[in-house]
Amino acid sequence: MLMRTDPFRELDQLTHQLLNGSAQQGTWSRPSSMPLDAYRSGDQYVVAFDLPGVTPDAIELDVERNVLTVKAERRPPRVSDDVEMQVAERSFGIFSRQLFLGETLDTERIEATYDAGVLTLRIPIAEKAKPRKIAITGTDSQREINA
């Protein structure tokens, strides 16, 4: 199972909004969280991260000791010096998110796809963690009772 333990996430988001609410052109934001959805589908967990405007080569995935780390960099658009920015609300910079994966997940077989700004991870449940039937063997031992 997936375990999401990020006690400082709300504080991080609030700080990010306060510090970057009036960001000017060319200002890079500090690392920020990325929204995600996670659900179980059969024998796997599916995690989808929203990463609009990020190119696939700017995404990095690492798993170490059952901690999955996703880092992505959204780069600002290249504009010439004669361009005058009217509104600059999109954040740029490095975004990072960590998920703590339970022991029941197979971190060796994680699959990742990226389509239309959504990074989708498929994390299978480990074979050893799947429910299984156990065969019961025995003998019909009927004893004769000597009277």
From TrEMBL:
SUPFAM superfamilies: HSP20-like chaperones. CDD domains: ACD_sHsps-like. Coiled coil: none annotated. It holds the Pfam family HSP20. It comes from the Bacteria. Residues 27-139 form the SHSP domain. Belongs to the small heat shock protein (HSP20) family. This is HSP20 family protein. It comes from Kribbella rubisoli.
